[in-house]
Amino acid sequence: GGIENRFCMIPKYGNNFTYNLFAHPHFQNNGRILISFNVNTSNFNSIYTDTRNYRARFLWLSVEDAVYTTIPDTVYIFDDFTDFTDVTNSTNNLKTNSLQLDYYAGNIYVKNINKPSVLNVFSIEGKKYFSQELHKDQTINISNLPKKILIVQLSNEDEIITKKIFHHY
Fold first, then answer.
1. Model confidence pLDDT, tens digit, residues 6-53
2. Dihedral angle of Cα 154, 117, 110, 58, to the nearest 10 degrees
3. If you ran DSSP here, which 8-state letter would residue 52 be given?
4. pTM score, two decimals?
5. Residue 66, CA distances (Å) to 18, 84, 100, 103, 129 in order
């Protein structure tokens, strides 16, 4: 066992309820991870008048703050969660200041590695399939991984590139 720490509360609102709170540690942004939860309603017809009554919500959570909090934050289901990280679902090139990450025909191409970096590949549900420390530009064949949507993350002490790919080779 361990100690459970309530870091966040989502109060009930009218006929709406929340479920499936899920952490996505493969999405990181400035020391925060992406959290998702779903909202539904017991009044089915209200979905047609307000689509917010039936959809997923996303928010960023500081892991350090969550661990040490003594008073949980309150998140309201109609808050506007628009702060989102730079994630693309295309197989086109995605460049940042220096690192470069490409995917084509079952291979991941990493370029401009000028300091120790780590390449991770996750399922969309967050299961880690692959992890490798990189010290130079490389081509990595991932044809042995499951044929599905994957999250590829390349990071070093200065940069993080996260890319969603449709791996079907």
1. 777 788 888 988 888 888 888 888 788 888 888 999 999 988 888 888
2. 0
3. G
4. 0.49
5. 19, 19, 32, 35, 27
